[in-house]
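Supplementary notes (optional reading)

For those who missed the lab, this is the record we used. Protein: Type II secretion system protein K. Length: 284 residues.
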Amino acid sequence: MMSTRERGVALLIVLWGCTLLAIMLGGFAALARTEGLQARYQYAQTRAHYAAEAGVMRAIEALQARDFRSRWIADGRVYAFDFDDAKVSISIVDEDGKVDLNAASGDVLDGLFKAAGVADDRAHRLSAAIQDWRRPGDAASPNGAKKPQYDAAGLGYGPRNGPFATVEEARMVLGMDATTWTAVAPALTIWSGRERPNAEHAQPLALAAIPGLGRAGAEAILAKRGQADGANLAGGNGVTHTIRAEAILDDGTRSSLTSTVRLRGIRSGNQPYAVLRWREGDVE
């Protein structure tokens, strides 16, 4: 027969066991709740992501619509539509209206940096450094930069001495700081092949980079563009575009995509577009 002391010890062991079991069950419940919340978030994020992808596909289709009047215009304006329970907004910019890092003249590059608020002397140096980055050879141009200038600045690399492989590569050019990059990045491309931006498609900063156009000329072009009918504007779309799509679900879950595509036309047996760049989330 158990003594009173033994019964007390047994009761204490049972109480500790129950307490430990309660703690374990509470931990499992918290873990299950956390995993459930994560699963719901991932599910919502996936739905928003595919809604944004649907926006990109919708833009590609609208850019090539057979009826010019229903084509979307690649001048940065926002188009919106509903996809299931997501609100999708899309903007399209024609790459022809940007400054091509591999083809732009020195005057255009100068104009771009000046339009972005860079002082004249520094704008000349940045323009020359970009031209030296893409130009073969080891000799720097006046105000430019080749390997010795990068070494003197304490950088562990030099210019490519060939075409820019990505737009983001321009961040590495000697003299390019974060503030300047943020200002000019939306106006840069490597896909137009043009010495100067196409004024029909260019956004304000790229327009201001065109030599001889001036502020008044740029404002006149933008005003005329705003008065033109959609069919004429859409008919002037180029073939390479950057599409930004953002999808927001009813619960506030958000996803965004930015894709640069080259249109190939809608013909039987032909892929109607080629993806040149694909970025997820907010990008500079």
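If you only remember one thing from this example: The CA atoms of residues 259 and 278 lie 4 Å apart.
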